[in-house]
């Protein structure tokens, strides 16, 4: 039997009574369409790559290449974007996208010029369209929406635990569910445990029924020990390095608080006498790795004790959070490269603020 594409429809009609063979032929047709679409996409990408190579050779020959002021690589003008200042600063699309992704991670939405010259210009919508992918564009729009809601001073603002969508909600005692209205999310979640909704079951009942192990409680306690929240707007954050005087990056907030005790503060809150502080106050500088390790170990120990008191049938080894050898080796390599763990003898331990 000839299974060429132009014959498939006739064969399907002839085999109308044979459901199994009919289904097989439909799967064959679907597989062929998928393959053809994938091949067309690869061919389009190949042609685009060849055209871009030719464009770059032509730009080099004509001397029209432009330097990216972020990575300092040279690119043809069609792969560059610029800020909207009178004296424009040029960047490659890759650097512009990575900058946008960083802003998204910091709950920001305004994309400012990356120039080291102190330029405060932005990028026009036409320029943003050239480097933003759909995912990053949506994330920036959500950050802007949430910032506007917070600036409006809306009380009882609640957020979806699965995406940045936020809305005004009654107190959790009145409504335990959050119904996300973001088109690509639309999940209904429990506002108490931040999991998908399990009402009318309680969080504890749901944890037992869905097999959420007691070990997860320990893992969550360890994660919570790493994460701080802004004491003004509730935005979560983790410090990588620098001093313990932290400023919230959320638009419209800007709260300053101590990373150690989470109280709002200024420099006189810390132990640096040269900045108005006193000995014995919270440290201004310290090893964040050491602090995180100590706090995570303490949280694990306390959670272990609590769980074992509630579930004596488990041993400590049953509940210990397992870390693979590869993860341990990677952590050791990272620490070996970190000057704060391996300072030069007689030299300073370097922190970047």
From TrEMBL:
Instruction: Spell out the molecular function terms from Gene Ontology.
Output: transferase activity; zinc ion binding
Task: Tell me the keywords, alphabetical order.
Answer: Coiled coil, Metal-binding, Repeat, Transferase, Ubl conjugation pathway, Zinc, Zinc-finger
**Coiled coil feature spans:** 33-60
PANTHER family given for it? Answer: E3 UBIQUITIN-PROTEIN LIGASE RNF216, UBIQUITIN CONJUGATING ENZYME 7 INTERACTING PROTEIN-RELATED
Q: Where is the composition biased (Basic and acidic residues)?
A: 307-340
Q: Where is this region: Disordered?
A: 307-347
Which source organism? Answer: Hyaloscypha hepaticicola
Give the protein name, as stated in the record.
RING-type domain-containing protein
InterPro entries, sorted? BRcat_RBR_RNF216, LUBAC_E3_Ligases, Rcat_RBR_RNF216, RING-HC_RBR_RNF216, TRIAD_supradom
Which residues does the UniProt record annotate as the domain RING-type? Answer: 64-280
Gene3D superfamilies found in the cross-reference section: 1.20.120.1750
List the pathway annotation: Protein modification; protein ubiquitination
Q: Which Pfam families match?
A: Rcat_RNF216 (PF26200)
């Amino acid at each position: 039997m000839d299974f060429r594409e132009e014959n498939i429809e006739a064969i399907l009609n002839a085999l109308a009574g044979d459901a199994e063979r009919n289904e097989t032929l439909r799967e064959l047709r679907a597989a062929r369409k998928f393959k053809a679409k994938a091949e067309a996409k690869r061919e389009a990408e190949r042609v685009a790559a060849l055209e871009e190579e030719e464009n770059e050779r032509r730009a080099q020959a004509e001397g029209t290449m432009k330097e990216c002021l972020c990575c300092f690589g040279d690119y043809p003008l069609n792969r560059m974007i610029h800020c909207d200042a009178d004296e424009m600063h040029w960047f490659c699309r890759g650097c512009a996208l990575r900058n946008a992704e960083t802003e998204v991670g910091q709950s920001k939405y305004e994309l400012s010029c990356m120039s080291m010259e102190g330029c405060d210009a932005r990028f026009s919508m036409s320029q943003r369209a050239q480097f933003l992918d759909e995912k990053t564009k949506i994330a920036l729009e959500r950050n802007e929406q949430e910032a506007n809601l917070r600036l409006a001073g809306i009380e009882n603002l609640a957020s979806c635990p699965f995406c940045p969508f936020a809305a005004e909600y009654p107190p959790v005692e009145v409504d335990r569910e959050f119904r996300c209205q973001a088109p690509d999310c639309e999940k209904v979640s429990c506002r108490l445990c931040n999991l998908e909704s399990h009402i009318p079951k309680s969080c504890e009942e749901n944890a037992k029924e869905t097999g959420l192990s007691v070990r997860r409680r320990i893992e969550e306690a360890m994660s919570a020990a790493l994460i701080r929240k802004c004491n003004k707007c509730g935005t979560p954050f983790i410090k990588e390095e620098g001093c313990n005087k932290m400023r919230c990056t959320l638009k419209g907030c800007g709260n300053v608080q101590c990373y150690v005790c989470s109280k709002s503060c200024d420099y006189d809150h810390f132990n640096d006498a040269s900045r108005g502080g006193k000995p014995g106050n919270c440290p201004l500088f310290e090893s964040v790795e050491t602090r995180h390790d100590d706090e995570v170990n303490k949280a694990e120990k306390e959670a272990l004790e609590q769980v074992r008191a509630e579930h004596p049938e488990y041993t400590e080894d049953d509940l210990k959070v397992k870390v693979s050898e590869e993860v341990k080796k990677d952590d050791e390599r990272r620490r070996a490269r970190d000057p704060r763990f391996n300072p030069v003898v007689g030299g300073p331990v370097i922190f970047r603020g």
